[in-house]
Amino acid sequence: MAGKTLFDKIWDSHVIEEIAGGPSILYIDKHLVHEVTSPQAFAGIEKRGLSVFRPQNTVATPDHNVPTIDQHLPIKDQLSAFQVAKLTENCNRHGITLYGLNHPYQGIVHVIGPELGITQPGMTIVCGDSHTSTHGAFGSVAFGIGTSEVEMVLASQCIMQPKPKRMRINVEGKTGNGVTAKDIILYIIAKITASGGTGYFIEYAGSAIRSLSMEGRMTICNMSIESGARGGLIAPDETTFEYIKGREFAPKDVEFEKSVARWKMLKTDEDAVFDAELTYDAADIEPMITYGTNPGMGLKITAKIPSEKDIEASNRITFSKALAYMGFKHEESLIGKPVDYVFVGSCTNGRIEDLREVAAFVKGRKKADNITAWIVPGSKQVEKQAHAEGLTKILEDAGFKLRQPGCSACLAMNDDKIPQGKLAVTTSNRNFEGRQGPGSRSMLASPLTAAAVAVAGKIVDPRDLSGL
Q1: What φ, ψ does residue 231 adopt, rounded to 5°?
Q2: Domain count, the chain
Q3: Do 247 and 343 fall within a single domain?
Q4: How many whole angstroms separate alpha carbon 69 and alpha carbon 48?
């Protein structure tokens, strides 16, 4: 009998029932909730006379459309205010733990889960948000769900879900200077395209992946969804266990040791077979940036935009439309392009390691006058740590200002919108038309590249400014 993949081991151990020729009924260990996709779900269970089945397995926080300035004041936007108030009301009524605005644990849902020790290896985790795949960095099966499925989990702690195929992506070797986890995942998506992972759950492996910090691994898994995959995961190891140890809701003392012994079993068997497997050389990866309107339209920052003849015939209309929207041309270099906005934040790159990277780069430098920069921590804990480490002062001395936690300009559901026609270099995860505001133009990059652009006021290779 062939061995099992890590994904299979976790999935199979959570199956309550298999429906012949249909989906699995899967038990969910942790359900994360925010203000946007939950009001209708709560209303749905109440309409049916149900209560939340296991409220202790659900954690909530407002993040998507909360303001990132003056959070101590009433929310001005009526829809945002309504959704946040509804989340508070629903959590209070159903006995769900809520980290509301100004709570020390509030933040982007996919940032607070790991930093509080809520996210643990071997779990199944869902949230009404596609970037739930972030939690797969801990060796968990984590994926986004729709509002009707949020209702299903609230009512039963289970979900009906077809089992995805398995893919393994190996990144072997050592990355070069200036290459971060964000560059690795942008490189992978550029290689397999924004639909190359469709139907799969991806396991990331190889020496370059194992060498990443937990923050880096979260960035990789976060963007799995941008390749069309259902989610991504990385086998837990000593880096994982060390990160979890001592966190607020992590197992303690003897229980922690027992948990680690169990977590060490969470790995793909040597004889396991994947439905697809790809291997990349880490040495081939350079700082990356996107030039189009999906995350797969990325290139090495020193490369030129492809010629139309290099694009598959079926994709040429989309390619040309994207270039027209972005204001770019075939075979054009992006180096030297003036930029208007820089955004550092989101569930992809709003962690303390990301802020440290930006602060280290801009220390002793000044932001370019033509750049409007928004630095948005992913949580109140990240914000507090940034202050404690002196990162806030470094950023302010360089002309940046740290805002308050939230999803912010990643999806522009609050006031943090990139104005029409303006060009932004962003550390978030999506660059669709209007993603960061109607008519905005977004280029995805790493925090290091974003910091270099903010200082230069134009697209630059971060290695040229940093002496790397």
Answers
A1: 175, 180
A2: 2
A3: no
A4: 39
pLDDT, tens digit (0-9, with 9 covering 90-100), for 154-175: 999 999 999 999 999 999 999 9
| CA-closest candidate to residue 430, choices 347, 352, 321 | 347
Tell whether 286 is covered by a domain: no
- pTM of the entire predicted model: 0.97
Q: How far apart are the C-alpha atoms of 254 and 84, rounded to whole Å?
A: 39
Q: Is 71 exposed, middle or buried (0-12, 13-18, 19+ CB in 10 A)?
A: middle
* Alpha-helix residue ranges (DSSP H) falling in 75-161: 78-94, 109-115, 147-156
Residue at token pair 């926080």? 61
pLDDT digits (tens, 9 = 90+) for 407-420: 999 998 888 999 99
The answer as to whether 3 is a domain residue is no
| Interacting residues of 421 by C-beta distance below 8 A, sequence separation 6+ | 439, 440, 441
287 lies in some domain: no
344 within 8 A of 374, measured Cβ to Cβ? yes
- CA dist 382 and 380 (Å) reads 5
Q: Which of 239, 197, 237, 231 is nearest to 215 (CA)?
A: 239
